[in-house]
Amino acid sequence: MQFGMALLLIVILCSVAGSLIVQQRSAMEYVTRYGEKQADLILSLGLDHVFSTPWFIAVMILLCLNLTFCSIVRLPKTVRQAKALLHRAGHAAADHSLTDKQHEKLTAFLQQRGFSTRQSGESTVYYKHLFGFYGSFLTHLSFLLLLIVGALVMVTATVTDTTVMPGDTITLEDGTLLTVNAFRIEDETGSLDYTSLLTLTNPNTQRTLSREIRVNEPMNFGPYKVYQQTYGTAGKVLIENLENGAAEEIYLTESCFLTLNGVDGLFYQALYPGYVQEEDGTVTLITSSSYAYHDPVYDVLSVAEGTMTPVLAFPEDEMTLGNVRFTFMEPAAYPGLRIKTIHSELLYALYAVFALMVIGLALCFFAVPTAITVTREGYALHSSKPQTGLMIDIEACLTQEEN
Amino acid sequence: MDILFFAALIVYFAAAVIQLCGIALGKNAWCRIARWALLGGFVLHTAFTAWRGVVAQRIPLANQFEFASGFAWSAALLGLLLHRRLRQEWVLAASIPVAFLVLSYAAFQPMEIKELMPALRSTWFALHIGSATFSYAAFAISGGLGVYYLMQLKKGRAETDVRLLQTDHMIYRLICLGFLLLTVVILSGAIWAEQAWSRWWSWDPKETWALITWILYAIFLHQRIRKKWQGKRMAWFAIIAVICVLFTFAGVNKLLPGLHSYAV
Ligand code: HEM
């Protein structure tokens, strides 16, 4: 057991290091943050990625071996102990004496506490929670399974992050089609909501499912789980070629130069969620917002005849540069989706392990196996753990009788 | 209605002072008065919490103020339940100061009611955070009882004295309860994280420190199986481990921001 405790102590030390030292950054960042010498030490010991270092994984493997020992290997011993308790209690001599009245009081007290009885020669054995012997087995087993199943879940799951514009469809690995029908940042009342309406279709099975997803409400479809992960707002502009009448709407997600002849055109710089107009007419731009862009402002440069002019444009504004007309439109909010593939069996196994752990601990703590040998002359308490509370309660019940 | 909050704080304070005097002077009647005061404070605190829940239209455990208030409320409730079970005044020696101190901490946090942010709108919210308040309260009371145990030893009581045996046992039972609840906190947190962010575990500072606290108490429970870890050592352990609990509760939010930063 002491070796196991030493391993747990190492996990604590690693966790402290992993939480105090920022993880997974560039070598340069460690030098800037902690100085050259400390950065050297951090990098050489792998303290920049504690939880994936070979030695941390080795500690986890040793922990698993240790847990195997204190659950599975120890099980026969646990079964023997469980069986031995009643036997031991049946043959034990009383080590606390009782008067007749106390005997009566004690038996009533034990019955009231829910003890079962079993006759063994001259003595009666009161017993309770014999199944509690298996609490420690279940707890250790569940912890072992948690580490194993958890590792399997981590290794087998694949995660892809993608952004999809409303109305667009993407094709997933097995041919499943994912369409973002709509996305909204706020609900009807103006509260933050971040909801995407998705449709997934498996062309092989023709199965289709439409659902709204939001934070905390991912969508399951076959092996996929789709999460509402992030969001963004893209500018949108209608570009019309005045020579041939061709027109196209495009999204603006990063700065770019829109031009037909390579000389005149529109240089898109940024989109702002809103602005505040001061009394003197000056405009201050609002640089960021978690909400929808209610008063969007396009920050652009118009490039014409070799000169660049900064312009703030608003939806519905038009600008003609060269032979191209640019019409600014309402920006579009779009979702960042996380698509995870998982084996649902592993997921259910993990849930089962969680439940097992809680049950195991509850048995360990609240179902302590106890047997009490009661004879005419006295009683003796047997348990797998010190039963201070019960002893004190029995003493109190007996002395109350005497008073 | 914040007046209810401050009224509860003042009543807890009065209860703590009366109780401390009662313990110092060995006057049981004072401790009884302190218990009634605790009950009064608890009623006010419950009314405040219920009112806040109604106004916010959610369980009021969504930020550091509400969580601290829930922690203090759980400490008061656990204290009253322990007293109901044991019918002895000394069992409140830790619950009353814990309820008062944690609620005082809450008083220094921003109190305004805010809309629940989308990341917190989950069915796991109540279980995860509700069990955390009770778990921390059980650990904090066990630490307080550790102090009480050492004080009684200093006063000359023997380790075999019934009062000290009971205190030691109570510390152990509270740690068992806290440990079980902390397990629920960690497991429900993992399920919730998977629903919200797709990852069961991200070694976020709050998660990591909850795990550190959990392992620390697991080590303690194992050491206790060996007899020499009962009594005085157990009391010291219970006190020292509370520092880790308090760091997980408040320190992490202030010093190691991560995914749980909204809890500030
Ligand atoms: C990794 C090494 C570990 C070893 C070698 C180990 C070993 C042991 C042993 C020998 C016992 C006594 C069992 C008995 O008397 O029936 C025990 C009890 C226990 N173990 Fe572990 N254990 C380990 C890890 C853990 C972990 C990680 C947990 C956390 C869930 C845990 C939870 C418990 C509990 C709750 C008990 C019962 C304690 C009590 O009822 O007071 N163990 N362990």
How would you characterize this protein structure?
- The complex is a heterodimer of chains A (403) and B (264).
- Chain A has helices at 2-20, 27-34, 36-45, 54-73, 75-91, 100-112, 134-156, 344-366, 388-402, and strands at 96-97, 116-120, 123-128, 158-163, 169-171, 177-186, 192-202, 207-213, 219-221, 224-241, 247-252, 256-259, 265-272, 274-277, 283-286, 297-304, 307-313, 318-321, 324-341, 370-374, 378-383.
- With 403 residues, chain A is an alpha+beta fold.
- Chain A has five domains: 2-65, no CATH class; 75-129 and 368-402, TATA-Binding Protein; 130-153 and 343-367; 158-232 and 335-342, no CATH class; 236-331, no CATH class.
- The longest helix of chain A has 23 residues, at 134-156.
- Chain B has two domains: 1-114, Four Helix Bundle (Hemerythrin (Met), subunit A); 117-264, no CATH class.
- Helix content of chain B is 77%, strand content 0%.
- In chain B, helix 1 runs antiparallel to helix 4 (92-107).
- The radius of gyration of chain B is 18 Å and the shape is globular.
- Chains A and B meet through helix 1, helix 7, strand 7, strand 10 and helix 8 of A and helix 6 and helix 7 of B.
- The complex binds protoporphyrin IX containing FE.
- Protoporphyrin IX containing FE sits between chains A (1, 4, 7-8, 63, 66-67, 70, 136, 139-140, 143, 361, 364) and B (218, 221-222, 224-225).
- Protoporphyrin IX containing FE (HEM) sits between chains A (1, 4, 7-8, 63, 66-67, 70, 136, 139-140, 143, 361, 364) and B (218, 221-222, 224-225).
